[in-house]
Design a protein that fits this description.
By secondary structure, the protein is an alpha/beta fold. 46% of the residues lie in helices and 12% in strands.
């Protein structure tokens, strides 16, 4: 299995002012994120507005970003949705265009049982040879994947880890304790990263790293080197920024707004998401301006 890295950025999808995917800007952003601390990129995830992207747009985005960054970093393609057959088809096609891994979210809207989750992920993983990261985000999907189901799935050889955004630390601890050796847990909430590392987690699939990638990298490296006071200091310093980007409006509205304002144009979100109103935008930027921006702009 490919090494996927501890710090992956869940990359926004740049759009033109007309709402078309801006592939050239996506490639520039991908390179800039690698220059500012990220080891790889998740393309077509929640932050990438994947529900609004067509099948063809996703595949072209996967291919062009991977071609742009080459071996400098990994591309993990968001290919899972609530339709198992469609997820299998997109996963197979993503593998053909050269991505390094797959991100498979817990199905949303149709709310399957735990056995349904197991069979869904098993079928997708067995359809491809790439490493697969599961994605548990019950706040968005309406369904929590239990520790027992995740541990069971960890026994499938190419399911290599989970992005855990449940903030259920008892559940996360159980996964880390009992999953197959080598199975990794990435934090799915930036503000949970240090806490998950202390439980034995591996890293983070991150939004704040668009702006503070080198700082998030330093947090992880400081913790791993035993400099826990330093890691805790970075964690506390970045928490207000994380809160501004995650609580003032729906992700990725705040991070796209902030990127546009600091000078890296990524365009507006696609409907049904809209740009923040003036008052919310000012609150976002008031916090952003308090921080050093690692992204080269």
């Amino acid at each position: 299995m490919a090494e996927l890295g501890r710090l992956l950025t869940a990359m926004v999808t740049p759009f033109s002012e007309k709402g078309e995917v801006d592939y050239a800007q996506a490639k520039r952003l991908a390179s800039a994120l690698l220059d500012s601390g990220s080891e790889g990129l998740v393309i077509g995830g929640t932050t990438g507005e994947t529900p609004t992207l067509s099948h063809e747009e996703k595949l072209r985005l996967f291919a062009e970003v991977k071609e742009a960054i080459g071996n400098r970093g990994v591309v993990v393609a968001g290919t899972g949705n609530y339709n198992t057959a469609e997820s299998i088809e997109l996963s197979r096609e993503a593998e053909k265009v050269g991505v390094d891994g797959l991100l498979l979210t817990v199905p949303y809207y149709n709310r399957p049982t735990q056995e349904g989750l197991f069979r869904h992920f098993e079928a997708i993983a067995k359809s491809a040879s790439l490493p697969c990261i599961l994605y548990n985000i019950p706040g968005r999907t309406g369904t929590n994947m239990t520790a027992e189901t995740t541990i069971r799935l960890s026994r499938i050889p190419n399911i290599v880890g989970v992005k855990e955004a449940s903030s259920n630390f008892g559940q996360i601890a159980a996964i880390i304790q009992d999953a197959e050796k080598g199975f990794r847990v990435w934090s799915g909430n930036d503000g949970d990263t240090l806490l998950i590392l202390t439980l034995g987690g591996y890293g983070v699939i991150c939004v704040i790293s668009h702006l503070a990638g080198l700082q998030m990298k330093q947090l992880i490296e400081s913790f791993l080197a035993g400099r826990t006071d330093e890691a805790s200091s970075i964690h506390r310093r970045l928490l207000p920024l994380n809160n501004a980007l995650m609580t003032l409006s729906t992700n990725p509205i705040p991070i796209k707004y902030a990127l546009n304002q600091v000078g890296f144009r990524v365009g507006p979100p696609r409907l049904p998401l809209v740009e923040p109103d003036e008052a919310t935008g000012e609150k976002i930027m008031a916090e952003v301006r308090r921080h050093h921006i690692d992204l080269p702009v």
